[in-house]
Write a structure and sequence with these properties.
This protein is an alpha+beta fold. The protein has helices at residues 2-18, 37-43, 58-69, 119-123, 128-131, 150-170, 183-190, and strands at 23-24, 71-73, 78-79, 90-96, 99-104, 109-114, 134-141, 174-175, 196-205.
Amino acid sequence: MKKLLLLAICLTVWSGMRAQNPIQLPQPEIGKLSMSVGEALKTRRSYREYQKGKAVDLQTLSTILWAACGISDPASGKITAPSAVNMQDIKVYVCSQQGVCLYDPKANTLIPVLSDNLLDALATSQQFVKDAPYTLLLVSDQSTRGRKNERYGDMDAGYVSENIYLACTALGMRTVARAMMNQEALRKALNLPEGAVIELNHPIGF
């Protein structure tokens, strides 16, 4: 029954991507991130092995994305990660074998970007990336701002990266921050603006 339910969810997501309709994520289960900060820091590790074929459901994905840079205070629009001069410049692209979506923190949705599989460009020579069900690509997009500061973008990416680490640790999952990827291929495929800087990627799984 669980396998059938998972298949139905995957088909729904895939259909939504093909139709270019935003995919509404379930509300993040913040209570599942109840591990103490001390315990999360003590047990956090970087993993380069993942169970191939073991899926991450949308509820869990929603919780990780919220922890990464979701809205923590709807009234002010503040996010869970620190951000230099409150740029909130880090965009999270959710990449899988089915394609790529952009996380919209305000609407808690995934916006389909393309149906191409970019895992080869993300993995390069590290096959384990392809075993993880999702890879989160962090891009500092300052194209809409009057000035560009790559140092601030690097800092903000680091904050979001650590949030992903701690959320995965609390959820009993695995991840690793990676700078290795084919940036030229990714930039071209995603049609990134000139002011966007590709920072890191995080495979997530079990």
